[in-house]
Amino acid sequence: MSDTEEVLFEQQGAVGFITLNRPKSLNALTLNMIRLMDPQLAAWETDDSISAVVIRGAGGRAFCAGGDVIDVYKAGLAAKETGTPAGLSSDFFFEEYRLNRRIFQYPKPYIALIDGFTMGGGVGVSILGAFRVATERTRAAMPETAIGLFPDVGGSYFLPKLVGEIGCYLALTGARIKPADCLYSGLANAYIESVDMPALEEAFAQANWSGDAEEVAARVIAGFAKEPGDAPFQAQQAQIDRIFSADSVETIIASLEAEDGDWAKETLATLLSRSPASMKVSLEQLRRGRDLDFDDAMIMEYRMSQAFMAERDFYEGVRSVLIDKDHAPKWAPATLAEVSREMVESYFVARGDRELTFS
User: Fold this and answer.
1) 259: helix, coil or strand?
2) 130 in Cβ contact with 214 (< 8 Å)
3) To 5 degrees, how large is the angle CA 64–CA 190–CA 16?
4) Cα separation of 254 and 239, whole Å?
5) Which long-range contacts (CB under 8 A, 24 or more apart) does 313-316 make?
6) Residue 114: strand, helix, or coil
7) Could you tell me if 138 and 188 are in contact, meaning their C-beta atoms sit under 8 angstroms apart?
8) I need a surface site. Which of 107, 116, 191, 259 has the fewest CB within 10 A?
9) HEC secondary structure over 214-258
10) 3-state helix, strand, coil in the chain (%, to 5)
């Protein structure tokens, strides 16, 4: 094990520890990290000396700020320009979603310590596990509509299951939320203070894991748990539910325009800055996701990912937010009215022999 590796693995006691180790990049996931994590998790599944897995981020600023999409952007752009096969822009999503599925189905306690920024792909490698422990430094978001993408990594499955219409609100706005709202909504299920994180990790390593491992994990976490304070979402719940229960983005926009107060104005301004195609496709994704099991949700998301890779907005969004950082994307289509029902449907078309598979 070397500190220069992108992911570190070690066993302490009966616990396998995964450390996402790209602190300068806020531990953003690369394809290499995915390819390291998946086989290690598979090996620990059948290792009788491992009773639980803990995943954490290095550096103190982030658990995982999402997928490292710049390489995907470059590869996808080159493929579009040359007409060559997709390569990385296909492989990244294919293998990431298979990793997400492994975490979702993991037979041992999978414990994510979401201390710091936890966004996009970072949500995917945390919320799908049994335990998600937030701290006062946690800032969580699904910010994909800001870069012309959609809330993937299982968002079709877990966002509709959050309290009320909070999942829809988070998906369309990309809002960044604090720990109290993470617990209230369901993105996290425990809260501790960051100063106690080393002691919690040590307690996992020293615990007696005989008996029911889920009960052991819950008991260890409970020994450090605190209350995060009031959740702003609780006061806004009725308003969020009323506005974001609509089945069209246009209706959501109209409701916000008719609403009084700073929250409605700020939310409206945020939506008006997002990719119109991303918002319409993402809303359709969440409505379909209500009725899908996890595997079908991931198959759908892979279809969507490849459709987005073939369109323009992802490349314009990444350019605007991550490359040039001018935050002035020129979306195409530029308005909601230009995003037809036929265009939305095209993102969900089956891909024949290029579907996501799990074997």
Assistant:
1) coil
2) yes
3) 55
4) 14
5) 313/148, 313/275, 313/277, 313/278, 314/73, 314/76, 314/147, 314/148, 314/149, 315/73, 315/76, 315/77, 315/80, 315/148, 316/148
6) strand
7) yes
8) 107
9) HHHHHHHHHCCCCCCCCCHHHHHHHHHHHHHCCCCHHHHHHHHHH
10) 55, 10, 35
pLDDT at 354 over 80: yes
Cα 357 from Cα 59, distance rounded (Å): 35
Q: Tell me: the pLDDT tens digits for 287-312?
A: 999 999 999 999 999 999 999 999 99
pLDDT tens per residue, range 319-345: 999 999 999 999 999 999 999 999 999
Q: From CA 184, how far away is CA 237, in angstroms rounded?
A: 10
> Whole-model pTM?
0.96
Q: Are 279 and 271 in contact (CB under 8 A)?
A: yes
CB environment 266-284: b (16+ within 10 A), e (fewer)? ebbebbeebbbbbbbbbbb
CB atoms within 10 A of CB 217: 24
Going by pLDDT thresholds of 50, 70 and 90, the confidence category of residue 54 is very high
- Only one residue has tokens 């806004």, namely 236
Active site residues per annotation: 67, 121, 144, 152
Cα separation, 115 vs 63, whole angstroms: 5
Structure tokens at 78: 């080159």
Residue 81's identity, in one-letter code, is: E
What does the alpha-carbon distance between residue 18 and residue 106 come to, in Å, rounded to a whole number? 15
Are 57 and 19 contacting, i.e. CB atoms less than 8 angstroms apart? Answer: yes
36: tokens are 């390291």
CA distance 167 to 150: 13
For 178, residues 6+ apart whose C-beta sits below 8 A from its C-beta are 138, 139, 228
* pLDDT tens per residue, range 39-49: 999 999 999 99
Give the sign of the dihedral formed by CA 333, CA 152, CA 144, CA 87: negative
Q: Which tokens sit at 129?
A: 């596990």
